[in-house]
Amino acid sequence: MKFYLISDNIDTLTGMRLVGIEGQVVHTRHDFLNLLKEKMQEKDIAIILVTTKLIELAPDVISEIKLKQPKPLITEIPDRHGESKIGEAIDGYVSEAIGVKL
Q1: The domain containing residue 15 runs over which residues?
Q2: What three-state secondary structure class fits 3?
Q3: pTM for this structure?
Q4: For residue range 43-64, what is the model confidence (pLDDT) as tens digits?
Q5: For position 82, which CATH number holds?
């Protein structure tokens, strides 16, 4: 099983390649969703890493996939620009799921 990166910038892709993770750079929602669909069909990919900026292009689709698809795991990663609100997103998911604001 392996990782795969879908990134919006070459810097993140270069860094991941240094540790052996292959990937591709895309910039549009259409290209992102097509590549994601393609990579989700590959049996040897267990985890797809996606930069925050791309997640923000299609949050509805990503949420649906995370709820309904057991594999591969789609994980949001911040890029070099920071500004990630992953912790807030997790709080929101938990609050919505259990009905208690954290």
Answers
A1: 2-98
A2: strand
A3: 0.78
A4: 999 999 999 999 999 999 999 9
A5: 3.40.50.10580
